[in-house]
Every structure is written in C-alpha cells, then in structure tokens.
Design a protein that fits this description.
Blueprint (H helix, E strand, L loop, with lengths): L2 H11 L7 H26 L5 H13 L3 H31 L9 H22 L10 E4 L2 E3 L1 H27 L8 H32 L8 H23 L3 H5 L8 H21 L3 H23 L11 H14 L4 H26 L10 H25 L10 H19 L9 E10 L5 E9 L9 E7 L4 E10 L2 E4 L3 E2 L5 E8 L2 E8 L16 E5 L1 E2 H5 L9 H34 L4 H5 L13
Antiparallel strand pairs: 1-2, 3-4, 3-11, 4-7, 4-8, 5-6, 5-9, 6-7, 9-10, 10-12
Length: 620
C-alpha cells in the first residue's frame, strides 16, 4: 500500500490521543527482541563465543587504520543517522500533506526513524563491547576488566535519549493530545538525541586516532592510499553530518509551516553555522568549513529529491551556508586555528552579519517563507549574538576533539556562558501571543466545484491597517493531500486577496496566517469535522465574518483543552531536565576527552601546531 493511501486512511480513523494499545505492544515487543539480540552479540563477543565481530573489527582497522572499536561503530552510526534523517523528513512531509496517522506502525516513515535510532544504539553497544583491552586514557570503566571508549558511552546516552522520546511521545499525546509541531517536547528529544550523536561520533573518532598513534609509538601515523581515501570520506561525512544534525531543528521553516516567530529561522541558522562550521574548520584544518558545507548540500539535496519529486510529498528546503563557510575560512586564514575561541567569536560575528545577509537573499529565491526586510534589523542583533556564542561553543568542542589545538585556561567557563546565552536567546524569542482583535470580512469566489472545491478569497480587514508591516500574511492549506503556502496581495487599502487556489473540501485545512512582532494570529477559512477530538467543521461559506485568534490554537486543534496547568508545567520541566542532563553529560565527556588526550605530551606534540596536516597523516 502506498504511503499516500496509508496517510489518507489515517486521516479518517487516526486517533488524537495516543496510539492503539495493540500497536504499542507490537512496537514494545520488537524493541525488546532487538535489545536482546544486541546484548547477546555483545556478551558473546566479549566471552569469545562470537568470532565474526572481532573479524569485522580487524577488517575496519585494515581499511581505515583506526582501531575497529572506533571505525565500525562510527560507520554504523553514520549510516543509521542518514536513515533516520530520511525518515524524519519523510515523516514531517506526510504529516504536513496528509495529517496525523493511525498510529506508530501505520506510518512508513516511522520504520526508517526507528531503524536509524536503533542503529545508533547498536553502534553504541558495539563501541562499548568491542575493545577487549583498555582503549585509551579517556575510557570509562564499565566493570572490572571492561573499559569502554568515552565516545561509545556518549553515543549510548544520545541513542537512549532519542529512543526514550518514542514512548514519552505516546504518553504525551494521551495526556495533552496531538501537538502538531516539530518543536513539541518529545519530538525535540527524538531530534536532539540523534543530532547530539554526531558529537559523540567525533569523540569516538578522536579516541580512535589517539589509540592508533599510541600503538605506533609516533604522532604521525602514516596511511596507505586506501586508508587516506577512507579517512577523507569519513571525516567529510562527520563534518557535514554535524551541520545536517544541527539544521534539523529548522524543519518547520524548511517546509513553510512555522508555528513560531520567523525570527527563529535566522537564529537557528546562525546557531548551526556557528557551531558546526567552526568545529569543521578547527578539527579538519584548511577547507574544513567548505568540506562540511559540500557534504551538507549533497546529503540534504538527496533527501529533498527522495521526499519531494520521487515520493511525491512536499519538498523540504534548506539554507545554503556557503557564505558562512567562506567567512569562517577567511577568519581562520587570518587568525589560525591555534586560537579556537577567537576564531569562533570572529567567525560568529561574520556569520551573524554577512552570513545572514546571504541567507536573506537565498530565502527570496528558495525558502517557502522568505524573510522580509523589516525582519533583518532584529535578526542581525539576535543572530549575531547567537552566532558569536555558537562560535565560542564550537571552538571549545573542536579543541576538545583536536588535542594539537591549544585552549585557554578558562575555555570551559566561556563555553558554559555561551551555552547559557544561546538558551536565553531561544527563551526570549520563543513566546508568541495573539494581537488586538482583528476582524475580517471574507468573500470566496469559487474556482473549482465540489468534490474538489477551490476558491479565491478576498479579505477586508478591520482595522484596515491590521496587516501593515506583517512578517507574513499568507494562505496556508495543508493535510488534505498536499501543501499550499502563498502570500496574500493587497488590492486596495485594507483589502487583500489570495494568489493561489485555496482548497476547501475533504480533509483540507485552510486558514489565513498573520505574523508581526511576537504576534502570530490565524483565521480559519475551512476546517473539516474531526470526531476523534471531537471538533465541529468550520464551513467555507460564500461570505462570512470572523475574528483572528491565536494561530497555534487553530493549527494544533488536536491538543486537549482543560489539562491541569500543574501537570503541563511538570511535564515540560521533566523533559527539560532530561535534555539538560544529556547536554551536561556531553559537556563532561568533552572535558574528560580534552584532558585525557592532551596528557602526557611529547616534545613533538608541543612543537607541531597550526593548520598544516602532514600528507598521509592523521589530522590533529
């Protein structure tokens, strides 16, 4: 059965408050079986009963030069994250085009997400179980005689964090209804865990390089041509993978249905560019930022082609990051990578100004919701602040996984302050509200008759200046088998008209959306009846008068009303605490890694500095 038919069937019978208990039991049983298989393989390898795991590790070491416990899990996690990435964007497009599904097993994209996240968990278990001797100074004691690489432990925590989001998501829906937004708390757990796994993979890679150097008794471990090629591919994908991962939080803007302030889009781009491009430039040396962008564009381009033209869903868009990468490379050319915090701060300054200007131009050509010029003053302020903080954080992360790069004494404190600044900027930008009561008299001109009725809407606002200076005033039609997002055109003072046919039949939801400042309002034109909530239909009469209301109340009408405020607060704080604990674990791991890889140092270590990576050698 095609994904379209599955989604259309789901639109009729889909529950709005958690999955059917039968599907929950099936999913739980499958997860239990997979977990048992992983544990059997891990224990069998460590007891010498399963030999092929060791042979696989030996093969990985011959191909790449890295220890098998580093390269094999890195490969598994990389492939798994790509599978999860495809599943995520396909899943979002299915929900945007067709609405909610009948449960976790009724959506084909969920299988890719689950397979990808379980793959990351399997990679983590492999990294923890594979080394039969202590893998290095940064290893973590699991049990007497069993030491695991720090990267494997962090990878396990990231995978567990993401996978925990699945059962919590179902519980969340049962308590609060469907939160039809990418930025739902449990959705962010799924995305955040997978995103942070890229940093864990960098840690694991750094431990593998250190172990290989220690085993050869020299800093410069020469590579064969095959190993150089494998190493180049792996490092390029790692660099691009971090940029891809941090960009997934922009998903609602990529599809054109953001439920938060448009200011978030430049903020999130500045955040991703500041961290990922600085990490790539410091860790990989010259051209590292450009290599990350090339990898990003290839990976996101493939996903966009698969989801859009090939599978026939709404195509996800994405930023370019090319100018931001050039800014980072130019700053590094003048500053060098030996001062990663200065490199990060100056790069952030350029990203928040020059980079966002380039993304403003790109948004006019490609993004479904282009940035108006009146957004840019505030975007430059908040974007530059976030980009500088992100650049400092990126410099600290890069130095942690690149031991040859020196780091100031108080770099950890600077990274913690930068993280707090980023959180504060997000919290300040997050709230949205409804404006003064804005009324509209709407007249619909029929363009196509039922059963696939479409109309053109003429909207007379009261007061007439209600849309003046708006960041967007759009028609949004979704969840009826596609997505239509288009601007309204002012045809007379206070009178606006839609510019594309608006579907007003079947499962379509069509509304007008108005955003200025921190106000995001919506006005429903047509909504189908939804007995699962339950909610009555909003008919698309030939003419009517309605008042704009808070936009998210329309887009998320599946959310339950009357839920205790204390329960909501406790739920949000619980998810926030889990997320902060995950971030703290990564910070601890990076700090431990930095200390472990830098001591003891040899004379060669102290003298080899700068951007130059000897040909055929592992980068610092």
């Amino acid at each position: 059965m095609s994904s379209f038919v599955l989604a259309q069937t789901a639109a009729v019978s889909a529950p709005a408050g958690g999955a059917d208990i039968g599907q929950v039991l099936i999913a739980s049983g499958a997860a239990t079986v997979l977990t048992i298989v992983m544990l059997v393989l891990a224990v069998g390898h460590r007891r010498g009963r399963i030999q092929w795991v060791g042979r696989l590790a030996d093969f990985g070491e011959r191909v790449t030069g890295l220890p098998g416990w580093a390269v094999v899990p890195s490969a598994i996690s990389g492939v798994s994250l790509l599978i999860a990435l495809f599943g995520m964007y396909w899943d979002i497009s299915l929900h945007i085009d067709n609405g909610r599904d009948a449960g976790p097993l009724a959506n084909p994209a969920h299988y890719f997400i689950l397979a990808g996240l379980f793959g990351v968990l399997f990679a983590a278990v492999a990294a923890i179980a594979m080394p039969l001797e202590r893998p290095g100074r940064t290893s973590v004691r699991i049990a007497p005689g069993w030491d695991a690489p720090m990267g494997g432990v962090l990878l396990f925590l990231c995978a567990a964090f993401a996978l925990t989001g699945f059962p919590l998501d179902d519980i969340w829906h049962r308590l609060f209804g469907q939160d039809v937004t990418l930025w739902g708390p449990t959705h962010l757990m799924l995305i955040g865990g997978a995103s942070l796994a890229t940093i864990a993979a960098l840690v694991l890679s750094a431990e593998g390089v250190a172990a290989m150097r220690a085993s050869r008794g020299t800093r410069r471990a020469e590579l064969t041509p095959v190993q150089r090629s494998a190493h180049g591919l792996r490092t390029g994908l790692l660099a691009g993978g971090l940029l891809v991962a941090l960009s997934t939080f922009q998903g609602e803007f990529d599809f054109g249905v953001p439920q938060f302030r448009l200011l978030f889009h430049p903020l999130l781009i500045a955040l991703a560019a500041g961290i990922a491009l600085v990490v790539a430039r410091v860790h990989l040396g010259r051209g590292g930022a450009l290599l990350a962008v090339v990898s990003f564009l290839i990976l996101r381009g493939i996903v966009a082609l698969l989801v859009g033209p090939i599978l026939g869903q709404t195509t996800p868009h994405f930023p370019l990051y090319i100018v931001e990468a050039l800014v980072v490379e130019l700053v590094a050319w003048r500053v060098g990578r030996d001062r990663p915090l200065l490199l990060g701060a100056l790069s952030g300054l350029g990203i928040g100004t020059i980079g966002l200007t380039a993304e403003w131009g790109w948004s006019q050509l490609w993004m479904p919701v282009p940035w108006p010029s009146q957004l840019m003053g505030e975007a430059y302020v908040i974007g530059t602040l976030v980009a500088i903080a992100a650049g400092l954080l990126g410099g600290w992360i890069a130095a942690a996984v690149t031991p040859a790069v020196p780091l100031p004494r108080h770099a950890g404190r600077a990274a913690a302050i930068s993280f707090a600044v980023i959180l504060a900027a997000i919290a300040w930008t997050l709230p949205s509200t409804s404006g003064d009561r804005l009324a509209a008299a709407v007249t619909l001109q029929e363009l196509a008759p039922a059963p696939h009725r479409t109309v053109q809407a003429t909207v007379r606002l009261d007061p007439g200046d209600g849309a003046d200076g708006a960041l967007w005033f759009t028609q949004t039609s979704w969840q009826g088998g596609g997505l239509v997002v288009s601007k309204l055109r002012e045809i007379a003072p206070g009178v606006w008209r839609t510019t594309e046919p608006m579907p007003v039949s079947g499962d379509w939801k069509s509304l007008l959306r108005l955003h200025h400042g921190n106000v995001i309002d919506g006005l429903p034109v047509y909504l189908p009846a939804d007995p699962a909530i339950p909610a009555a239909a909003v008919p698309a009469s030939a003419s009517f008068e309605r008042t704009f209301a808070l936009d998210r109340h329309i887009l998320q009408r599946e959310s339950k009303s009357g839920v205790s405020g204390w329960l909501t607060l406790v739920a949000y704080l619980t998810v926030l605490a889990i997320a902060l604990a995950m971030a703290g674990a990564l910070g601890w791991g990076l700090t431990r890694l930095r200390g472990g890889l830098r001591a003891p140092r040899t004379a060669a270590d102290r003298t080899e500095r700068g951007d130059q990576v000897p040909r055929g050698a592992w980068p610092a």
